[in-house]
Amino acid sequence: MRYRLFDLPDLRANEPDPPPVSYGRRVTARNNRLIERGVNPGSGRRLLREAAPACTLRCKDCTHTVPTGRNIKTYWKCAKNPRGMTRGLATDVRLKWPACQLFERRRTDVPSESTAPEEDHATPEEVPEDALGPGR
Ligand code: SF4
Known about the structure:
Bound molecules: iron/sulfur cluster
Helix content: 10-25%
Shape: elongated
Structural class: little secondary structure
Strand order of the largest sheet: 1-2
């Protein structure tokens, strides 16, 4: 039995519960923070636009985007992700994300499920030399 000198009011009784934040929203928020800091969440590499602000290349233009998923929805992964291509949400890539230092141009413009990754390189005019980091 607990003894108290006096009853304390429950100070949190009238506070509303915080809204539930799903795992997906937390991952999206983390990815947005990384992009704001100049890092592509898919590969963990610096964005090309950090060195060349006019660079408009996206992950959808990159040959390393790999479609996964066998049902209706396609989930895009980055073949250069150091964590590998898991089945989880945390390694998904958004095609609209700005390209990173490991970018290599895809031959077809719009990726589709039937598009196999192809080996090709961006032209030197599109990717400045100083945009390529030391890990390249
Ligand atoms: S630009 Fe290419 S290598 Fe870089 S994160 Fe996107 S898909 Fe991966």
